Amino acid sequence: MSSMDQKLSYNEYLKVSDLLRAQQLQSTPTHHDEMLFIIIHQTYELWFRLIIHELDAAIAAVFDGNIFYAEQLLARVTEIQHTLVNQIHILETMQPINFLAFRDKLRPASGFQSWQFREIEIMTGVKEPKVLTVFNEEVEIKKRLEERLAAPSLGDAFYTLLAKSGFKVEVAPSRDDREEWSKWKDKVVPELLKLYTETAKYADLYRLAERLIDIDEYAALWRYHHLRIVERIIGVKQGTGGSEGLGYLQTTLSRKAFPELWEVRTRLEFRQS
Ligand code: HEM
Predict the structure, then answer these.
(1) Which residue's CA is minimally distant from atom 31 of ligand 1?
(2) Quick check: is 1 in a domain?
(3) What is the 3-state secondary structure (H, E, C) of 187-247?
(4) For the residues of 126-155, what is the DSSP string, one character each?
């Protein structure tokens, strides 16, 4: 593209005009703070896109046994998550009364319908098919998420690598079958205890497991910060997506991609050798 007479410009490369055309306010007369509301969500969606891109590569790297590269990619994901946690606070500069001035125009749109958010959950290992019903009328999106549900997650890649490395573990069954999943967890935790006891022996795998915990920790932090902002701005009002709002969000706080890696901490014991 960049011949002498047709040089690529910054604005063309980054499609700046396209980006700046994408803020279409619903309020009439337009409300000053709606621009903030749109841009903050759009930047989240862009970061979500990058997280999906990085997770795809990280899952492939873990399957290939390329732990060094996988770790680098997952460290990047966590750095992005730091930004995602912090940037939600920009919304605290919006007065509750100013949000109410345009909130009704947004119904029934809600962050609940962010398919990239769900895709990230599924890719890390939170596979809860019931969340897909919200996309019943968005056929392409639903199909994409169903494909993701059927595809191996980061957790699946991790346990495949552990099995190849001599640990007696299998890939997790669906969490919909509570009993099967619980049996799986009871078998996997003792193996993970080896990893978390003999950390120097399994240094690479241990570090990788800690990158997975990082992802879960920052996802949980985001949920908590989002919940606080929601309470600060709309209290316990019902969500625009139709949920009871704060009460619903509280139930999501304990959602984890790797609950078994958290349980290891509880079960770990120090023994003098
Ligand atoms: C004024 C600011 C915000 C308010 C009042 C708010 C409110 C809510 C409420 C009440 C819900 C529950 C679902 C519903 O019934 O609508 C929800 C869900 C959600 N929101 Fe927000 N939100 C805000 C900002 C954001 C931002 C900036 C994002 C960034 C993408 C976001 C992403 C989400 C996501 C992903 C969910 C689904 C969470 C889950 O099901 O686990 N929200 N929000």
Answers:
(1) 111
(2) no
(3) HHHHHHHHHHHCCCCCHHHHHHHHHHHHHHHHHHHHHHHHHHHHHHHHCCCCCCCCCCCHH
(4) ---GGGGGGGTT-HHHHHHHHHHHHS--HH
d(CA 57, CA 161): 15
Establish if 13 belongs to a structural domain: no
Evaluate whether 187 touches 168 at the Cβ level (below 8 Å): yes
**pTM for the model:** 0.96
Residue 24 lies in a domain: no
- Give the residue from 140, 131, 194 showing the smallest Cα distance to 162: 194
Distance separating the N- and C-terminal Cα atoms of the chain: 65
Burial label for 259, CB within 10 Å (0-12, 13-18, 19+), is: middle
- The domain that holds 55 is classified in CATH as 1.20.58.480
For ligand 1, the distance from its centroid to the CA atom of residue 210, given in whole angstroms, is 28
Counting atoms of ligand 1 from 1, which one is nearest the CA of 45?
30
Q: Please tell me the predicted confidence (pLDDT) of residue 176.
A: 82
Ligand 1 atom 19 nearest Cα: 111
- Ligand 1 first shell, C-beta below 6 A: 40-41, 44, 88, 91, 99, 110-112, 114, 117, 226, 229-230, 233-234, 239-243, 245, 248-249, 252
Q: Over the stretch 46-88, which tens digit does the pLDDT of each residue have?
A: 999 999 999 999 999 999 999 999 999 999 999 999 999 999 9
Which DSSP state fits 6? B
Angstrom distance (rounded) from CA 114 to CA 135: 10
User: In this structure, is residue 22 part of a structural domain?
Assistant: no
Q: How far is the CA of 18 from the centre of ligand 1 (A)?
A: 26
Tell me the residue length of the chain.
Answer: 273
Amino acid at 233: I
From 40, 103, 226, 252, the mutation candidate for ligand 1 (largest count of ligand atoms within 8 A of CB) is: 226
